[in-house]
Amino acid sequence: MSAAKEAVPVSAAEAKALFADLADQPGLVLAVSGGPDSVALLFLAARWRETLKQGPKLLAVTVDHGLRRESAQEAASVGRMAKKLGVTHRVVRWSGKKPVTGLQAAARNARYRLLVDAAHKAKVRHILTAHTLDDQAETVLFRLARGSGLSGLAAMTRTTGLGDCKLIRPLLEMSKARLIATLKAADIPFADDPSNRDPRFTRARLRTLTPALAAEGLDASRLALIAKRMARADHALERAANEAMARLVARREDSGDESGAAAFISVDFFDLPAEIALRLLGKAISAVGDEGPVELGKLETLLEVLRASHLGRKRTRRTLAGAMITVDSARLNVERAPKRRKRS
Question: Taking the model in full, what pTM does it have?
Answer without folding.
Answer: 0.87
